[in-house]
Structures are given as structure tokens and as C-alpha cells.
Amino acid sequence: MFIGRNEQLAVLDELLEGLQTRNDRKPGHAILIRGRRRVGKSRLVEEFVQRANVPHLFYAAAGRTVEEELRLFVAEVLASDLPEADSFRGVTFETWDTALRFLVSALPEDGASIVVIDDLPYLIDKDPGFEGTLQTVFDRFLSPQRVLLVGIGSDLAMMEMLNDYGRPFHQRATEMIVPPLSPAEVAEMLELPAAEAMDAYLVSGGLPLILAEWKPGWTMWEYLEWALQRPTSALLVSAERALAAEFPTEAQARLVLSTIGGAGERTFTTIGQRAGIQATQVTRATKLLGEKRMVDAVRPLSTRKSSETRYRVADPYLRFWLSFIEPQMPRIERGGGLEVLERIREGWSSWSGRAIEPVIHEALDRLRLPLGPKAAAGVVGGYWTRTNDVEIDVVIADRPEVAKQIYAVGSIKWKGERPFDGHDLGELLKHRGQLPGADGTTPLVAVTRSGYTAGTVPDLHVLGPEDLLEAWRRR
């Protein structure tokens, strides 16, 4: 069952329709698709190709030598349904330039076709001249054809650079980011109520491979009981495989990632202390993790400048895996999955209360609450001090870090089944008075998993799990 991705499929359908109907001398088009590993990029494109029902080639690079990649490329062309694919029989190539030029002879003379190159960064890594080759062949031979060239990659930084100014392929391709499945799509796929769907999202991160083995209707605890007793389950192996591909030689970056995710260390100093490495090594590792979009560096949001940077793992699934699974893998492999399940139960309330915050921030950013006539599109973050004597879950402002105007201040109550009560409201009012840029008229936001019993106050917005899912359903 293929769930979601309607927005991405619509873009691909529109590009294909455009090259079928354009009458200029260069109807061909290229698109570069990026997203985190195992997020379903290839599956999305496979679904698009199947629905398109036009001749196509789907070639996936394997990270091998140029000679071996070219051999595999020929084999994939021969196995494709391109009308002149048989012209590749018995042919060998020494360079990508000759192989891609020869590919044009296999394309249909009339009508559209699709050429997919999956794991494009592998080819660039093995052949530094591949970018220039792709640009030349696309400009001279592919763009005059009714062909849609699709490049897919998980190395986010490299895929972004391909279209940058000064790079050979600059301004030649549309760009698409494939995110994980949203909490709303998780709810639909697993047939779960809103609060339980949010739990499932924190565990799965919206990764299709995990959700595919999660039976509809199963609660998070039912799925975890099943997955933790199967060492080959997607829940256990997806992160390990993705990290092995991302950091084949970067041991320190991998160590820092585990320290941030598993140990819960969030400041520069505590990361270095816990990991046992020097400041220069922490700097190098956090920079690499940021480039790979695996770690976010966030600062307090208010009208006052702050340098209190905190680091957090960007992907919900990876946050869960580093916290609960990686440290217990030896126990799981010895058959102790049920023991690990009990450890997750013990730590779940505290962990999920913090892990849900960036998810709720994204939901609030999408919802665009009615916060008064002066509130324009802004940003959502949090606020804290160096000593943590003031911590505010939600701050909505006009711009990042040093804001000019605070639109709203909020609190998140997601632990257990206790509703947002009068005590929580009192704390929120107190924190509003401690936030630089806020005052007694600043609107309030209460996000609660289990209801609200605190009474009515002016300019208060109360949001529950169903309201949060609506943030993803609106688009």
C-alpha cells in the first residue's frame, strides 16, 4: 500500500506532462530529489514511474568503481523497456560521457521517457568529472529529447551543491525534498487516533520501512513488543545501516551523535565532556553533523541576543534509536527484547515530553494561529537561560533568534494522562513575564495531550493531538 506523497507525485506528474506537451526545441527536464536515507525516495519514484506508463530506465549506483558501475548501467539498460535498449547488447564503455551519449540512441524518437539515476552522489564521489559530464550530455543530447532525468541522493549537502551557483549543473534542474511521512500520514496508514499516531511518529520518524511492518491498529507498545524480539526488524537495523553509510570513517562524528542522542547531552561543553574529546574535535564533528542535517543547533528565541546553543538530533526515529535501542543492542541480540521494552516504558514519559517539542514546533509553524492583526508569518522555537532556571516550551516570534516582536508564548504538557490544569497555566503566566519581549498582553498557547481544565483567560489557544495532526492535513 502506497500512502501519502501526493504533493511530490503531483510535481512529478506535472513535469512529465510538461515535456509531453511542450513544443520548443528543448522539451527535456531534470529534477534532483534529496532526502534522508531510508525515507522512501526510491519508492516514491518507482511509484511515479509505474503510474506514468512510459518507457523508462531506473539505474541505482552501488558505490563501486567506475568500470563496475558502467557495467551495471549497461545491464540495467538492457533490462529496461526503452525501445532501443537492445543496442546496448555486447557494448562496453570506459567513461560516463560515452555511456550517457549512447543512451540517447535507446530513447524513443517520439513520446516521453524517464531516466532515473539513484544514489547519484556515489557516482560523483567515484568520478570527480561526473558533474561536468552530466551537464554536457544533458545540455547537448538529453534536453532536446522528451525525457525526464531524475537524480536521487541521500547525501543532502552534496545534492544541494549540485544546483549551486558555480557548479556545472547550476539552474538545470528542479529540486525536490522528500520528507518522512508526516504524523497525519502515519495516523492514516496505521489507523490510529491522534495521540497514539504522534507516539508512533516519535518511534518511527515517519520512515516507510518501519511503518510497513507496523500492523494497522497496533499501539506503539504492541509494535515495540513485536519489533524488539526480531533482530532484523526495520526498527532495529534501519538506523545502523544509515549511519554506517553516512559515517564509514568518521568515528568522532558518530561518537558525538550518540552522545547528543543517547546520553542527552545538549551543550557544546557537556558534549565534549561526555564524549571525552577536545573542543576542536567537537567543533569539527558538530559542523559535519549539521551539514548532513543530522543535528540541529538551536538558540533561545526572544528579543535578546543569546549564545546559548543547544544541539539535538534532527530525526525523530534516530532520537528514539540512539536513546533506547543502540545502548541495548547487545541485550536485544541475546534475546532480551522484552527487558528492553520495560526500560523504554520506564523512560518513555520523560523522554517523549522533550522529544515531542520540535514536532509540535513544526505543527505550530504550519498552523499559523490567529495571534492578532500585527502577527505576520513568523518562526517557532523555545527559550531557556544558561542555568535553566527559565525554560519556555513555545515561543512564536517574527524572526529567528533575536526577534523584534513576540507573537505568543506557550507550554507543552505531553507526559502521561494528566490534563493541562490551573498549576500549568500559572507557570505559563509566570514564564511569559520572564521572556524578553513578552508582556501581559502576549497571547498564550497551551498544547496538551490529555485535555485542558485550567479555565479561560484572554488570548489563550488550546491545542490537542487532533489539532496538531490538522497542521499536516491542511497542505
Task: Please explain how this structure is put together.
The protein has 475 residues and is α/β, with parallel strands linked by helices. Helix content is 47%, strand content 14%. The protein is built from 21 helices and twelve strands. The chain has a five-stranded parallel β-sheet, sandwiched between helices. α9 packs across α16 (316-325), α13 packs across α14 (268-275) and α19 (357-367) crosses α21.
Based on CA atoms alone, the radius of gyration comes out at: 25 Å
> In this structure, how is the largest beta sheet organized?
5 strands, parallel
CATH class of the largest domain: Alpha Beta
End-to-end Cα distance:
21 Å
Essential attributes:
ATP binding; Trna Endonuclease, Chain: A, domain 1; 475 residues; 14% strand; ATP-binding; Rossmann fold; 3 domains; alpha/beta; 21 helices; 5-stranded mixed sheet; single chain; P-loop_NTPase; 5-stranded parallel sheet; nucleotide-binding; Arc Repressor Mutant, subunit A; 47% helix
Question: What is the strand and helix layout of this fold?
Answer:
Layout: H1 6-21, E1 29-34, H2 41-52, E2 56-60, H3 66-79, H4 96-103, E3 113-118, H5 120-126, H6 130-142, E4 147-153, H7 156-162, E5 174-177, H8 183-190, H9 194-204, H10 208-212, H11 220-227, H12 234-246, H13 251-261, H14 268-275, H15 279-291, E6 295-298, E7 310-313, H16 316-325, H17 329-333, H18 337-355, H19 357-367, E8 379-384, E9 391-397, E10 406-413, H20 422-434, E11 444-448, E12 460-463, H21 465-473
Parallel strand pairs: 1-4, 1-5, 2-3, 3-4, 10-11, 11-12
Antiparallel strand pairs: 6-7, 8-9, 9-10
Domain DUF234: 321-416
Protein name: ATP-binding protein
GO molecular function: ATP binding
